[in-house]
Amino acid sequence: MDWQCTGLRWPEGSDGPVLGWRKGPQVRGSALAYGTELGFRASGRRTCIGARGNACPVAAPVPERSAGARCAECGRLDRAHSVAADTIPDDPRTYRVYLAWFGAGMVKVGITAEERGAARLREQGAVVFSWLGRGPLMAARRAEEVLRTALGVPDRIPYARKRAVRGELPGPAERAGEVAELYGRAVALDAGGRPEALERLPFEAVDHAGLFGIDRPAVTVDDGEAAAGGGGVVRAVTGLVDGGVVAGRLVAAAGPDLHLDTGRADTGAGGVVVVDTRLMTGWDLTAAGAGTGVSVPTVVVGGGASQGGLF
Question: What's the predicted TM-score (pTM) here?
């Protein structure tokens, strides 16, 4: 058995993302740095990763293009004790309500356990966010629903939409201004909508563009070459296949996504490719050398374009 990827994490207090790995009972994490080479080859078939720390008893096969590498039974088990599924309303922890900004006109409201800090925001790829309030779970959940309806913002945004706008982000002031405007509207609802048990938190726009690496047009590496910046994504991987390779220079990361410069922009088929690490879970992966490019199905992203293709 080779190492299986468990996805991208953004630990609180870290300087960047960490790629998780598991091989039987062994677990480890690889801290990632922009400008370094990253490559892997998938082998065998993609199998269920199990649930809540337990292996899938039948190692069930899962679809190559699914963002969740769990079979139906393990998926049900994983959600049986989940805040997102509202199955633990008596959770005693303190929760925070937030506004998260992903692009112009693309804002959502959500909640996260206070003990996790802003890790949940980084995992979602939020470019800017601000806290709104803190309190018990059910008070935070009620506030989330009130704000979602009153502000006309969703509680979920598809990752494909987030990726499509990363190359066309406005400046920091405009990003913060849009969040500030919504925060002001949310505060104005206090009299009729905020649960009494929820404490209001002051506005503070936290910008992740620098942490994600999407605020730079290019990065300079040891050999003096300039690699493409993280924003100009050309294609996104739609799934891995047996023997498929993804390799390039890491130029950015956001949420579960890694942005890799394949070094093939001169062919018209390369440039920056984004790979959702959730598609890597469930596969046995081995290292692939630099310069091997991308040999798995991809799709054009940005500007609403969508067409299949192979590098």
Answer: 0.86
